[in-house]
Amino acid sequence: MLDVVLPARQRRLGAGAQVWIPSVLVAAAMLLPIAYLIVRAAGAGDEGWSLLLSPRTGRILFNTLLLAAAVTATTIALALPLAWLTVRTDLPASRLWSVLTALPLVVPSYVGGFVVVTAFGPTGMLQQALEPLVGITRLPAVYGFPGSWLTLSLFTYPYVLLSIRAGLRGIDPALEEASRSLGHGTAETIRRISMPMLRPWIGAGALLVALYVLSDFGAVSMMQFESFTTAIYTQYQASFNRSYAAVLSLVLVALTVIVLSVEGRSQRARYYRIGAAAARRPRLVRLGRWRWPALLFCGTVVALGVLLPAGVVLYWLVVGLRHGQPLILTLRPALNSVYASALSAGAAVLAGMPIAMLAIRHRGTLATLITRLAYAGYALPGIVVALSLVFFAARTVPWLYQTMPVLVFAYLVLFLPQAVGTLRSALQQISPSQEESARVLGRTSRQALLTVTVPLVRPGAVAAAALVFLTTMKELPATLLLSPTGFETLATRIWSAATEGFFTRAAPPALLLLLISSLSMALLLSQERRGFDV
Amino acid sequence: MKRSVTLASILIAVLVAGILAPASAQGVSLTVYSGRTRELVAPILEQFTKATGIAVRARYGETAELAATIMEEGANSPADVYVAQDAGALGALAFGGHLRRLPDAILQRVEPRFRSGDGLWVGISGRARVVVYNTRNLTTRDLPASIADFTTPRWRGRIGWAPTNGSFQAQVTAMRLLWGNERTRRWLLGIKANAPRVYRNNTAIVAAVGAGEIDVGFVNHYYLFQFLRERGTSFPARNYFFPGPDVGNLINVAGAGVVTTSRNIAAATRLVEFLLSADAQRYFANETFEYPLVVGVAAHPLLPPLGQIRTPAVDLNHLQALEETLRVLREAGIL
């Protein structure tokens, strides 16, 4: 039972006021950081704009684009085989590998960068392990591009992995089987059927990675790699110059627009889906002897992305305890982290739903603009978004400033794309025929949407919420500036201890952060099973 | 459908509770923006509350980011007191008119060289710039008499620095004041020619010196002691002070000021005064290994006494001339 749905059919359902009004409101909120940047850049004067045209700007532009391209390509190269192995083959213990290979996402990049330096630095753990064996006293420097590339690839590939997994589970194997029965070989089937169908999912994950790389500060600053983000931070930290920082940030906004239009092409590919009730599990590919290299590959990625960070953090804990540092474990920051992240996740799903619907059901200029605006805050460094909201909130709603609603609003501006991306993928897998049937049976468009489509998208919504939850757990700059005064989270505890060199005090909150995030990752994957397997 | 309505209402209810909760807990309380971390400042603030009954709520962040926050908040800033890591950020806020003059009685507890000339901020603790060196590869006899000498080729590939770090930039500002822009530029280019490793902060430099990644690093004196405390005295790094009144021995301050828009000026002033009390100063001396600035309070026994360090003749009030320093750093291709 094959049901090929062209976008036109989705669009015919249309988007009513219940989708348009919230979408416009959310998009307006997303405009705030850009409005702030324009206000500040206007005060930059000639010197600020000449800074933009200096050779240095060209260099950091090149660095930033190179890093984004390299990390995105690497994450796809890692995620495709991992997704295929865990979803489509008889890999031993594939459930366990599904969870483990997604876990690197819970490691914050500032912890990840530190871990990579500790392990692969010139005199790090790897060198110390190699010295007695082969007498290497110094490894080539991991700093700069190699370290940034390694760290960001290692801890962001799960964005692509999760997206491709969702895609693989949603594709009806009948298409691939038909291709084979028509005499096409495996390679031909992958090229002509599997890859084109997976393209929107690869694109959605890769977009999150590419834009994340533009905004990341934790990894690049640890690796001393000169990118746009480090240049922007330098303006704030060294010269208190908000205008120059704004000028540089506007360049990042322009880069975001370019990345979005590239990705927009992958989404224009036709997407196919299957009648939800008729789909069945594809037959698993038997790996045979190939399961050993497959296990080695999964094992290596998990060792680097999960065991290494956990190991390094535990190492710091043990070293500190041995030297008589007290083990300080307080529950309050953990509760605060969970509380703020849960609110952020709920808000992102509520705000993301209308945007995701608009994205797949409407193709006008305004709809495209609104969908793209959702990504405005995601590629900007956290400090820029945070200061823009400081500016607007303190001046217009001082009674709300530094309260939970403004903090949650900041998280929304920062992380909405993660929810929109996941929800959009989920909505694409729901047959419009079900909503159409409800309409034929006399429901209004609003009733049909709320009673048919919204419940069907629930597993996707939970997955989106879990993704935003995970990311909010790690968030630092907006939490520091916009949280209620005295509100501490695990991330602020880690930052606070680590910046002053109290690594052993940073270890317990870091472990707790990894633990809580892992649990929410398990929730995300259990929803994946319930949802896309139906 | 019902469920999503329920979820939405729960979300809204929790948010509303979030707005009301801190408001109802508010009494007469001070809000402190601290560019120094919680680990260092929180115990002092607790002592203040115990001693005066004034509740203090603190927001911790990076010194510069909190300064930017106070500037963006404008007239509605909730901050009463601003505590900074270095004199430069205090200077930037003072220059923008965000700090108000402190009473003379407070200012006079500290030597003039450790406070703002206009009385807009006061130094709380002293942080000496030092050279941290790897004790396996070097002894003090291998180290030069002045920071100027690190431009010689024998230091090629052995130096670590943090050009984006505020304390380092303050030191470069001091160099400009003492040597002039041209000599400072030559020094920077000389160090750059020695292929120094760039680090993001002092902690990273001390860790790298301990790991033998580099042999020397330009840092503040007290970071080393955290490593000694956590890793034991076998940690192979120590601080080096130059013998003469060298700019390499600059003593910068962490300080505090009262924010112009504060509605609790009396209480805010009391907090600044408390930070200069003998108790608080002893705390900094014993816990953080920083130098107490109030006369009569002794430094930690592991440190050379403040009087023994021959500091350069630099007026800290001028360390706020950071814009010019950044220009020099940029022109030298370092930032």
What CATH calls the topology of the largest domain in chain B is: D-Maltodextrin-Binding Protein, domain 2
Overall pLDDT metric of chain A: 83
Helix fraction of chain B, binned, reads 40-55%
Q: How many helices of chain A in DSSP terms?
A: 24
Distance between the termini of chain A: 15 Å
* Sheet/helix structural class of chain B: alpha/beta
Radius of gyration of chain A: 23 Å
The name of the CATH topology of the domain at 8-42 and 333-534 in chain A is: MetI-like fold
- The amount of beta strand of chain B, in percent, is 15-25%
What general outline of chain A do the C-alpha atoms trace? globular
Output the helix-strand order of chain B.
HEHEHEHEHEEHHEHEHEEHHEH
CATH architecture of the domain at 8-42 and 333-534 in chain A: Orthogonal Bundle
Portion in strands of chain A: under 5%
Mean pLDDT metric of chain B: 87
**Biggest protein-protein contact in the assembly:** A-B, 64 and 64 residues
> Can you tell me the CATH superfamily of the largest domain in chain B?
Periplasmic binding protein-like II
Find the structural class of chain A using helix and strand composition: mainly alpha
Number of helices of chain B: 12
Question: Regions of chain A with pLDDT < 50 over 5+ consecutive residues?
Answer: 1-7, 274-278
